[in-house]
Amino acid sequence: MRQIVKRISPILLTALLTCSCVYRIDIQQGNFLEHKEIDQVSVGMTRSQVRYLLGTPMVADSFQSSRWDYVYYLKKGRARHPEQRHFIVFFEGDKVASVERLTEDAKS
């Protein structure tokens, strides 16, 4: 019985120590937008110009076609706080009326 415990103990100890060493992948979702691209969006631009510059919006509301939401989420491995960005473009007709930036960067 002692020989079995002596053989299993190092294996069990190694298994317990490596449990916390599990690799966690980065989770990235949404539209990644550079600040220089966002800064180029201005009042008066057309929908096609915005789509060419930023791409297709992540969230397109079928009930409110005057608003495009560009959402980005990044959680790196074991980081507690994800990086989140939300950029909203408001339209009047076919032209940009205003833009809104909501950003919450990672704290760790």
Quick recap:
This protein has 3 helices and 5 strands.
Low-confidence stretches: none
CATH topology: Beta-lactamase Inhibitory Protein, Chain:B, domain 1
CATH class: Alpha Beta
> What is the count of structural domains?
1
The separation of the N and C termini measures 48 Å
Number of strands: 5
What key attributes describe this structure?
108 residues; alpha+beta; Beta-lactamase Inhibitory Protein, Chain:B, domain 1; 5-stranded antiparallel beta sheet; 3 helices; 5 strands; 29% helix; rod-shaped
Question: Could you characterize what this model shows?
Answer:
This protein is α+β, with helices and mostly antiparallel strands and 108 residues long. The chain is built from 3 helices and 5 strands; from the N terminus they run αβααββββ. It has a single domain, classed as 2-Layer Sandwich (Beta-lactamase Inhibitory Protein, Chain:B, domain 1). It has helices at 2-18, 35-40, 47-54; strands spanning 27-30, 59-60, 67-75, 83-92, 95-104. Strands 1, 2, 3, 4 and 5 form a 5-stranded antiparallel sheet that branches. Strand 2 (59-60) and strand 3 form a beta hairpin. It is rod-shaped, with a radius of gyration of 24 Å. The mean pLDDT is 83.
